[in-house]
Amino acid sequence: MLVATCPVLEKLTVIRDPFELLGIMRVRSKSLKTLTLGIEDDQDCLLGDDHVVEIDAPRLEHMSLCDYLSGSIIIHSIAPYASVNIDVNFEGKDGYALDQDDDDDSNSKRTMIRNFLTRISTVSRMAISSVTLQGFEFDKEECPIKLSSVPPCFVSSLKYVELATQGTTRPSSQMKLAIYFPRNCAALKKLTLSGSFGDDIIKKIKKIPRRSRRCIFVTG
């Protein structure tokens, strides 16, 4: 209600409390351009799988989400060609993989991730945390969230990608992740790889064919 009663609000930062009692947090605004969602560093109390975050802001140009606690994150609308930073735990609050149980909850989670990716499919710049990437399950032979299922507009408008992984991530998973973008993103201009990928992997990635001739590789 606070956001809804601010018709000219352009920038909003929300720092949430793990102990809050809200079952759902909605950010609905026709004027909002920048949104930062964070949470206090407290692992003793988790919001739970029934907590929902909804974002409906058609003019939103910059979005940064840091959420390891909510069961569902729903994007209704953001601006085309937005810049997004995604640090969301798609594996669930207990860290269990999405394909651990083939039940309704797992299917619902997969659908939520697909819908989430679809709603951010027109972004031009994206940074993804290693925690978020674990939800895509690159270590599995059968990946429930296949990157090939991402809508065509995702690969046609994305221009800048920054990737970083944890030291425990398998080299094979790093390769699968990194080569996807230059092979499929026709508009990609720059792919930034953190030092966590290792020199050998970075050298291999630089040699692979890229769909966009303008694409350059940067290490940082």
UniProtKB/TrEMBL annotation:
Top-level taxon: Eukaryota
FBD domain segment(s): 152-220
Secretion signal span: none
Full protein name: FBD domain-containing protein
Organism, as annotated: Brassica cretica
